[in-house]
Amino acid sequence: MSNLVRMSVSLDRDLADRFDREIERTGCPTRSKAVADLIRQSLVRQEWADGDEVSGAVIMVYDHHTRGLGGRLTRIQHDAVHLILATQHFHLDHDNCLEILAVKGPPRDIARLHEKLAAVKGLKHCSLAAATTGRELP
Ligand code: NI
Predict the structure, then answer these.
(1) Structure confidence by residue, pLDDT tens digits, 81-138
(2) pTM assigned to the model
(3) Residues, Cβ < 5 Å to ion ligand 1
């Protein structure tokens, strides 16, 4: 027996047209996949709002010459070893570094870690890619 459920939805014409244009623009193969992706995005947002555990990545760019910056970032990371799965450091050019932390843990703790890192003076960029552990997501 198929595990697929057929649903019929009614949408405002303008909204449906806009949705179809977005599907076309992104190259999404079907409306069904586009709708399923939106539902998953919503479920992941909900995991971040009230879930127990999420995953994600903190992405930072900085000039390694900036005095004291490396030490501050390292200290914050050492205080959060229970949240950090791995770190990867790329030397982008002579001056700039890209550092990516793969993280997993309670959403509030990960958001707090991101805030602490983002507050460090001298960072050129610090963003959080909010993902999921996938466990609760079909
Ligand atoms: Ni570097």
Answers:
(1) 999 999 999 999 999 999 999 999 999 999 999 999 999 999 999 999 999 999 988 8
(2) 0.88
(3) 64, 91, 97
Does 34 share its domain with 64?
no
- CA pair distance 91, 62, nearest whole angstrom: 10
68 belongs to a structural domain:
yes
Tell me the CA–centroid distance for residue 52 and ligand 1, in Å. 34
Distance from the Cα of residue 93 to its chain's centroid: 25
User: Do 107 and 51 meet the contact criterion of CB atoms below 8 Å apart?
Assistant: yes
Residue 136 is assigned to a structural domain of this protein: no
CA distance 74 to 37: 36
What is the 8-class DSSP label of residue 81? T
pLDDT tens for 4-48 read: 999 999 999 999 999 999 999 999 999 999 999 999 999 999 999
Beta bridge partners of 123: 62
Q: Give the distance (Å) from ligand 1 centre to CA of residue 90.
A: 6
User: Which residue range forms the structural domain that includes residue 86?
Assistant: 54-130
